[in-house]
Write a structure and sequence with these properties.
Layout lengths: L9 E12 L2 E7 L10 E9 L2 E12 L5 E7 L7 H6 L6 E4 L3 E2 L9 E7 L3 H14 L3 E7 L8 H8 L3 E5 L8 H10 L6 E7 L1 H13 L7 E5 L11 E5 L4 E5 L5 H7 L17 E7 L2 E3 L7 H6 L2 E3 L4 E3 L8 E5 L2
Parallel strand pairs: 8-9, 8-11, 9-10, 11-12, 13-19
Antiparallel strand pairs: 1-2, 1-6, 2-5, 3-4, 3-7, 4-5, 13-14, 15-17, 15-19, 16-18
Helix pairs in contact: 4-5
């Protein structure tokens, strides 16, 4: 059961497909006009996973004025459950169901300074924000990080557009981002209470930024983020999930989420964002073996350390050497 308001689903037609970085495909879709996609919006797309329909969300990189042409960029993830593989198989002329642009990562107005931070494919959620900030002629800093330049989509265009406002950090060039230095500089700025930071990237990057943001005494309401839930602290491994009160026991495979497995086993689960942000899919943990791999940004550090709840849409249990098939026992409200 989803708490979504009912999005406007319509068939779309692929009108352009081309690579923009190693493993990243740029896909433009023609669909009925609605409105221009504002920065931070995404579209939901119906994908085919092993012959079964499912839904994936992709950030809008750009759109035309009436929203009839929407461009997304998709990373072919080695941990994909099938969504990115489906998107990478698309060719010009293919049709698929899509929604109108949906907003849950809005760019604010009126800040004294903006800091944008994109990690890897997280650039797709940030790129249009940077374009809008430049057009507003406001003070902004654009930080783009990745393991290598080959993985950095749109880098030449961004360097040309943003010039010295763009800071590029590349791990394999020895110029990786010093998060502590970035956050210290924000905290030392006389305008610190008027600085907003927007970020999208892997969970490790976002967790580190959030910890340093709070340790520097910066206002949490000035930290905005969007996440993608396929990055965790451990490699995905198979585990068993149980809900004794419903007499449910199911195996969660490496290419499935806990939420998907429980729904398939007959549990009527609540959920919404499916990205670990809203907390609607959170359930209580009775017991677990192995390691809890919290991949959400909804639970606090204290809640994650307590190990008493889990966001089923992205988080999971990881095996260890003494327990190759861990067991997670849950309790529903």
């Amino acid at each position: 059961m989803s708490a979504d308001s009912h999005p406007d689903w319509h068939p779309g037609t692929v009108i352009d497909v081309r690579p923009v970085a190693q493993g990243i495909q740029r896909i433009t879709i023609q669909r009925p006009p609605t409105r221009r996609a504002h920065p931070g919006t995404h579209i939901d797309v119906q994908v085919d996973i092993g012959g079964e329909p499912d839904v994936r969300s992709y950030s809008v990189v750009e759109s035309n004025e009436d929203g009839s042409q929407i461009t997304v960029s998709v990373l072919l993830s080695p941990q994909s459950r099938g969504g990115s593989k489906f998107m990478h198989r698309l060719a010009i002329g293919d049709t698929l169901l899509t929604t109108q642009p949906l907003q849950n990562f809005a760019l604010g107005q009126g800040a004294e300074r903006y800091v944008l931070l994109a990690g890897g494919i997280g650039i797709t959620a940030i790129i249009d924000m940077a374009r809008v900030l430049k057009s507003r002629q406001v003070d902004y800093e654009f930080v783009y990080v990745a393991r290598s330049r080959e993985l950095m989509a749109y880098l030449p265009q961004l360097e040309q557009l943003h010039g010295t406002r763009l800071r590029v950090h590349v791990d394999d060039e020895g110029t990786g981002l010093d998060i502590a230095s970035l956050l210290t500089s924000i905290a030392a700025d006389p305008r610190r209470d008027g600085i907003e930071l927007y970020m999208c990237g892997p969970i490790r990057l976002m967790d580190a930024v959030r910890r340093d943001w709070l340790s520097n005494g910066l206002a949490i309401y000035n930290l905005r983020y969007e996440t993608f839930g396929n990055s965790g602290w451990f490699e995905p491994s198979e585990f068993v999930a149980r809900i004794p009160q419903l007499d449910i026991e199911t195996t969660v495979g490496t290419n499935s989420t806990l939420l998907e497995a429980l729904n398939a086993a007959g549990a009527d689960m609540m959920y919404d964002c499916r990205k670990g942000e809203c907390g609607l899919c959170q359930v209580d943990i009775e017991s677990f073996s192995g390691h809890l791999d919290h991949r959400d940004v909804f639970l606090s550090d204290r809640q994650k350390q307590a190990g008493s709840s889990i966001c089923t849409c992205v988080s999971r249990v990881a095996a260890d050497k003494d327990d190759p098939t861990p067991v997670l026992t849950l309790s529903l409200p």
